[in-house]
Amino acid sequence: MKKPKRSALNLSVLLVTVSVAGLCALPVLIAIGVVALDFRQIGLGMVLVLVFGAMAGVGLAILHQELNSHFDDLERLRGDIVMVGEAASQLPRHWSLETRTDDELKRLAGTINDMLGRQQSQRGVPDARLEAVVGTIAEGLVVITDTGLVSLINSAAAALFGHVRTAVGTSVYAALEREDVIAAAQRARTANRPVSAMIRTVEGDYMATRVADLGHHGGFALTFEAAPVEHRPGVVHDFGLHDVLPPAGTIADGTQLLDLPTLVLDTETTGLNVRTDRIVSIGAVRVHGSRVFHSVTLDRLVNPGLAIPARSTAVHGITNSMVAGAPPFAEVVGDLQAMMTNTVIVGHNIRFDLAMLRRESERAGIAWKAPPSLDTGLLVIALEPSTENLNLEAVANRFGVEIQGRHTALGDCLVTAEVFVRMIPRLHDLGIRTFAEAIAFQKRAKHMIGMQEHEGW
To answer: Are strands 373-375 and 261-269 parallel, antiparallel or unpaired?
Structure first.
C-alpha cells in the first residue's frame, strides 16, 4: 500500500504553483515587452507554455495520487476503529510498524491504541484481583464445563496433573476417569451442595476430590489436596468456554449477521486438485453472530486411502503414519453433517473445501446438498479492493488476528473465525447487515470467483 508523504504533497503543490505562476506571467511579460511577440519568439512561447503545462500536469497527478492514498488510509483506519469496537482490543499491528512513513496516521493510531489500552487495563483490574485471590488457594483447583473442558486451573492443580494434560481448553478426561467425574458431578448437582468423592486418575490412582456445582453458570469446580507449589501461585482461565451456544434456528435471507449461526470450516488435503485429491483432516468451529464458541469444535484426521505426497505433508504436517489408523471419510462425515445443520458455512476460499467435501461424498455414495456459504477471501476483496495478498496469514495480520496452528484444519478454522467476526462490524458499517446482503456483497469479487470456477471449485 503506497503511503502519502508530506514531501510528495509539498512537491506537487510547488510544481502546480510554479507552473500556474509561469502561465499567468507569460502574457504579462508579452504585454510589457519583456518577451517579444513576433514570429521568431512564437516557438519559445509555445515551449514555455508546454513546459509549464507539463509541470502543472505532473504536480496535479502527484497531488491526486497522494491525496487518494491518504484518504484510502483514513478509510482503512476508520474501518479498523469500527472493528476494534466489536471484536478486538487493539488496532491491527500494521498501524504501529516502524516502516510506515505516514507519521500523522501512525501517531493517530498510537493515540487510539493508548486509549484502548488504558480502558482495557481498567476493565482488567477486577479480574486481576480475583485471579490473585484464587491463586492463593493451596488446594489444586480445576473448573470444568458440563462437557468436561477445563476453563480454569491454578498452579497447584497444574503441578499435580501436568500442564499439558489439564491446560485450559483441553478435556479434563485426559487426566481423570470420565465415569468417576460424571458420577460425582451428578451427585453434586442433585444434592445442590458440594460433595466429596474418590476420583481415579487415568493412571488408576485415587484422589480425594471435592466437587461443587456452579449452578446456572454451568460446569463444576473440583478441588484436590496438593503439595505447595514452589513458584508464585497463579491461575489461568477462559470462562467463555461456559457460554451456551444459541439454537441455530432457520436461516433466511433477512437473518441478521449478528444473529447468523455459522460453522467455520477447513480441510487439509493430499493436494489442490478437487477431482483427484483426497481429504486428510477436517476442522470446524461454531460461531454465532460475532461470538466464537471454542468449546464447539471438530478436529478429525481422515484416512484418504492413498499416500500423502511429501509436498503436502510439508504444508500441513500430516504424515501417512498419522492417518494410518484414522477412519475413512464415510465414518467422519456424519459428525460434520450434524454440525452443519442449520448453519451457514464460512471459510477462506471455502468453495475449495466444499468441492472436496462434495467429491468425497460422491465417492462414499453419500447424498450431498450444497450448503449456504460465505467466503472470507471474497469478503476481503469486496471490503478492500486494493488488497493484493489474500493468503490467510496476510489477511489475519490485516485484521489483527494472532496466528496459531497455521496449516492445521482446526487452527486455520480458529484464525478464519476471528477474521470473520472482525468483518461483521465493518460490513455493518457499510449497511450490509443481513445474510442476503453479505452474499450479494461478496459477489463483487468477480475476478476471484472466476478463478475459483476455473479450478473446478
So the answer is: unpaired
At residue 17 the predicted structure's pLDDT band, cuts being 50, 70 and 90, is: confident
198: pLDDT strictly greater than 80: yes
Given pLDDT bands bounded at 50, 70 and 90, which one contains residue 342?
very high
Cell 510589457 identifies what position?
32
- Work out the percent of the chain whose per-residue pLDDT is above 90: 47
The reported pTM is 0.69
Calpha distance 233→107 (Å, rounded): 39
Q: HEC string of 184-205?
A: HHHHHHHHCCCEEEEEEECCCC
**Type of residue numbered 207:** M
Contact 396, 377 (CB under 8 A): no
Q: Give 195's strand partners.
A: 211
Residue 375's DSSP bridge partners are: 347
Q: Which three cell numbers stand for residue 149?
A: 473442558
Q: Phi, psi at residue 275, to the nearest 5°?
A: -85, -30
Return the higher-pLDDT residue of 67 and 207.
Answer: 207
Burial class (CB in 10 A: 0-12, 13-18, 19+), 321: exposed
Q: Is 193 exposed, middle or buried (0-12, 13-18, 19+ CB in 10 A)?
A: exposed
What is the bridge-based pairing of β-strands 261-269 and 344-347?
Answer: parallel
Antiparallel, parallel or unpaired: β 344-347 and 373-375: parallel
Torsion sign over Cα 96, 97, 100, 103:
positive
Question: Could you give the maximum distance between any two Cα atoms of the chain, in Å?
Answer: 113
Could you give the C-alpha distances from 400 to 36, 98, 124, 238, 380, in angstroms and in order? 65, 16, 20, 20, 14
* CA atoms of 98 and 115, how far apart (whole Å): 20
Q: What does DSSP assign to residue 139?
A: S
Amino acid identity of residue 99, one-letter, is T
**Which three-class secondary structure state does DSSP give residue 141?**
strand
Q: Is the separation of the CB atoms in 212 and 187 below 8 Å?
A: no
Amino acid found at 245: L
